[in-house]
Design a protein that fits this description.
This protein is mainly α. The chain has ten helices and no strands. The chain has two domains: 59 residues, no CATH class; 160 residues, Up-down Bundle (Growth Hormone, Chain: A). The longest helix is centred in the first third of the chain and has 41 residues. 24% of the residues are buried. This is Solute carrier family 22 member 15.
């Protein structure tokens, strides 16, 4: 136990053995064990400090190396743009659901409920079609449906709402895929740092999304959908 660094356990074990045999450890022996424990604790503390410094330095070096790689930089830019667009459309469709025909409260509830089947199907879609293909397909479907609503007459309420919900269904799948796909794009050592950078740019879309319903006032009812489609 002493060689393994378990000084406290060793002292307790020796005391138990001495008590069991009707003996008593001498004060000198206890002092030696206590001194050895103090030395061992200091060595452990020094070793942990050294490991923390080494880990910190290696992480910084790995990040610097990654920033000199054109491939990693391109991935960061690409993923950051995808995050910004996905958050804009995902939150924008939820907040703009009141601008389409029909009951605005019912539309908002349906927009929330349609995410549930999307969350269940996303794993199967990714496993069968792959990350990249699924990401591209869902974004294209969402874009096509957003712009197609402009050509559907207003009296076709069910068709308008159905297209809108399928668009929200698609962007939900795309958003979930993006979380997993981004994490798989970067080296393990700096994955969290680069993932955080991409997510940070995604917050730009989150900040812009609440302003999209205001476009209806200035540019018409379909302006948010045209923005989402163009994005």
């Amino acid at each position: 136990m002493i060689t393994a660094g378990k000084i406290n356990e060793a002292i307790e074990e020796l005391k138990y053995i001495a008590k069991f045999n009707g003996k008593k450890l001498s004060e000198e022996s206890l002092k030696k064990l206590e001194a050895f424990r103090s030395i061992n604790e200091k060595e452990i503390e020094i070793e942990e400090t050294r490991k923390r410094r080494t880990t910190s330095c290696s992480s910084q070096q790995a990040f610097k190396r990654a920033m000199t790689s054109k491939r990693i930089i391109f991935r960061v830019i690409n993923c950051s743009f995808c995050w910004m667009i996905n958050t804009l459309i995902y939150y924008g469709l939820s907040m703009s659901s009141g601008s389409i025909v029909g009951n605005r409260y019912g539309n908002f509830i349906l927009c929330s409920l349609v995410e549930i089947p999307a969350l269940f199907l996303v794993i199967k879609i990714m496993n069968n079609c792959g990350r990249r293909e699924s990401q591209c397909a869902t974004l294209l479907v969402c874009s096509s449906l957003c712009i197609s609503i402009a050509f559907v007459p207003k009296y076709a309420v069910i068709l308008n709402v159905l297209l809108y919900l399928i668009g929200k269904f698609s962007i939900t799948i795309s958003f979930v895929i993006l979380y997993m796909y981004t994490a798989e794009m970067f080296p393990t050592e700096i994955r969290h740092s680069l993932f955080g950078i991409c997510s940070m740019f995604g917050r730009i879309g989150s900040m812009v999304a609440p302003q999209t319903p205001l476009l209806v006032t200035y540019f018409g009812e379909l302006s948010p959908l045209l923005l989402f489609s163009g994005s």
